[in-house]
Amino acid sequence: MKKIFLLITIASFLASCNSGPQGQLVGAKGKKWHPVKPYGMTEVPGGSFIMGKADDDIAGLNNAPTKTVTVRSFYMDETEITNSEYRQFVKWVRDSIVRQKLAEAAELGGGGGEADGGNGGSIQDFAFKNSAQGDDETTETPYQQYSIHYDPTRQRLNWDPEILWATADYPDQDYVAVMDEVFLPADQSYNGERLMDVTKFEYSYKTMDIEAAARSNGDRSQFINEQKVQVYPDTTVWIKDFSYSYNEPMHNDYFWHAAYDDYPVVGVSWTQAKAFCNWRTLLHNGYRKSKGDSNVNTYRLPTEPEWEYAARGGLESATYPWGGPYAKNDRGCFLANFKPLRGDYAADNALYTVEADSYEPNDYNLYNMAGNVAEWVDSSYDAGSYEYYSSMNPNVNDKKNKRKVVRGGSWKDVAYFLQVSSRDYEYADSARSYIGFRTVQDYLGSEVDLNQPPR
Asked: Carries keyword Transport (predicted)?
């Protein structure tokens, strides 16, 4: 009896120790969060640095006076976004649109489609999935909205069957009619190839102007904007950027050929780069949602101070990411891909771009922060912006100002534009054969600073 009484006493004590907060303030706990470094990114520890030109302003632009600023920690792509990575985005948009059109045609044509077992070998195999059926959410949450037949709150695209691209495999006339909308007419194709109408590859997403909403007491719905962006890169930039120059092979092959998979994507506007960031966030969080995990922070373009801070790699007042002031190492080898000497493009062993992980990275393990392709950042260009920048996480993004900052110089630029403090700009809707981008993601959790090693 004594043993039984002792066991009951111990059990009662343990129960009392685990009976909840007992009226005490213990806080509302969320899910356990473990910071995860995104694939292909490196962590840039936050800190302060001297932004701007520490040496002579050779061009006399007076647009980058020195200023001490502080930025928070963030992750940044180790390389520029490559053709292969951007192509994943393009193909996802293309397949989403095709599957939506097939599903709408299946719905208008009647029949149960996949949900009822389908009838095999018909357009009904691509019918919408009804979210009310209890199917697990996929990572392919649809965002394209083109007609009243598609309600993403009730329906989901069916990603199970493979899209049939070869005309010989088309299962029925309804399928033929949909695919004819996706491809160009025969009189616009040549060399026996059936070409897609890439203007149909349009990504639709919504954003909210949080800064404007925070300063207003009105209905926040007025600050929500829908963006519709054609995502296919402008491959004609290889022709339009250069007069009296033979660059047709780059126009024909650079974006699609496997030989250029690991080269930085070009011909992408600032607007397209922003759409890519939104899609990358959607893709990552879609997977995490399917696993029951918390969302990660959004992927975005870096601000101008973040880009310069990362490019310096912890070196204070250096001319280039590797230090400087020279663009060659002690063996006489060029340290970046640019236009050296008196315009000898090939002197650095590259005529156009090179693989995104070429040359040595800086001390934050970031490749080609100088040269190869210049990079879009999130900030608008204003020659006097340093004068009124905040000193904490500074950024200027005036939506009325279509001039967006590009940094780092490119394969066709002289050494001046490779300097980490040099500023340049291009218009947001413009695409060039020498401008690409890389993305960043805010670090969530315990703040990291320069006194701690990168993770």
From this structure: no
Residues in the chain: 455
What integer pLDDT is reported at residue 56 of this predicted model?
78
Sorted by sequence, the CB contacts under 8 Å of residue 303 that are 6+ apart come out as 71, 377, 378, 379, 393, 394, 395
**Partners of 264 in beta bridges:** 82
Q: In angstroms, rounded to a whole number, what is the distance separating the alpha carbons of residues 222 and 50?
A: 38
85: enclosing H helix or E strand = helix 83-109
56-69 burial, b if ≥16 CB within 10 A, otherwise e? eeeeeeebbeeeeb
Q: What is the pLDDT of residues 318-376, one digit of tens each?
A: 999 999 889 998 888 999 999 998 888 888 888 999 999 999 999 999 999 999 999 99
Element (H, E) at 123: none
HSE-CB at 206 with a 13 A cutoff on CA atoms is 10
Taking CB atoms within 8 Å and a gap of at least 24, the contacts of 159-167 are 159/99, 160/114, 161/114, 161/125, 161/126, 163/95, 163/98, 163/99, 163/102, 167/194
At a CB cut-off of 8 Å and minimum separation 6, what does 113 contact? 103, 106, 124, 125, 126, 127, 128, 158
Give, for 125, the enclosing helix (H) or strand (E).
Answer: none
What are the tokens at 282? 């959607």
Give residues with Cβ within 8 angstroms of 119, minimum separation 6. Answer: 111
Domains of the chain in sequence order: 41-82+264-442 (3.90.1580.10), 85-230 (no CATH)
**CA-based radius of gyration for the chain:** 27
Q: Please give the order of strands across the beta sheet that includes 403-407.
A: 424-427, 403-407, 374-380, 435-436
Query: What ranges make up the beta strands (E) of 82-211?
Result: 129-130, 155-156, 202-208
In terms of DSSP bridges, do strands 299-300 and 440-442 run parallel, antiparallel, or are they unpaired? Answer: antiparallel
Amino acid identity of residue 56, one-letter, is D
Phi and psi of 212, rounded to 5°? -65, -40
d(CA 338, CA 360): 15
CA gap 321, 310 in Å, rounded: 9
Q: Quick one: pLDDT at residue 133?
A: 40
pLDDT for residue 72:
93
Whether residue 255 has pLDDT greater than 70 = yes
**Single-letter code of the amino acid located at 5:** F
* Residue in 299, 416, 307, 335 with CA at minimum distance from that of residue 49: 307
